[in-house]
Write a structure and sequence with these properties.
Residues 1-22 have a biased composition (Basic and acidic residues). Residues 1-43 are annotated as: Disordered. Helix content is 58%, strand content 0%. With 101 residues, it is mainly alpha-helical. It has a domain at 45-98. The chain is elongated and about 95 Å long. The protein starts with 6 loop residues before the first helix and ends in a 6-residue tail after the last helix.
Length: 101
């Protein structure tokens, strides 16, 4: 279609779209560098021992508080022993989120 009557219209559209492209490229957005993911290996052995150890220590803390009727592990803080035991155990449970077997 070399002799098409719509040729001036298409040229006008093409120049408008070229202007849009130039406007976009003149104000580039800063691009974030993509981080290359490291190959995820297994978690170190000590991590697993610490994780399960914290869960068990927290459970034993609470059991000791109930069995001794508040005389052990720390009698001065009373019922706060339950919160301490749960806190220790929860730290162990939160560590499971980063554990890779």
């Amino acid at each position: 279609m070399p002799d098409s009557p719509d040729k001036p219209e298409t040229e006008a559209r093409a120049s408008k779209s070229a202007d849009k492209v130039l406007k976009r490229s003149s104000n580039p957005k800063p691009r974030k560098k993509k981080r290359t993911p490291r190959p995820a290996g297994p978690t170190p052995q000590w991590y697993k021992y610490l994780m399960f150890g914290l869960m068990i220590v927290g459970l034993l803390w609470i059991i000791a508080f109930y069995i001794t009727q508040g005389l052990f592990p720390v009698p001065a803080i009373g019922n706060w022993n339950i919160l301490i035991g749960f806190g220790i155990a929860i730290i162990g449970f939160l560590m499971t989120l980063r554990w890779r077997g």
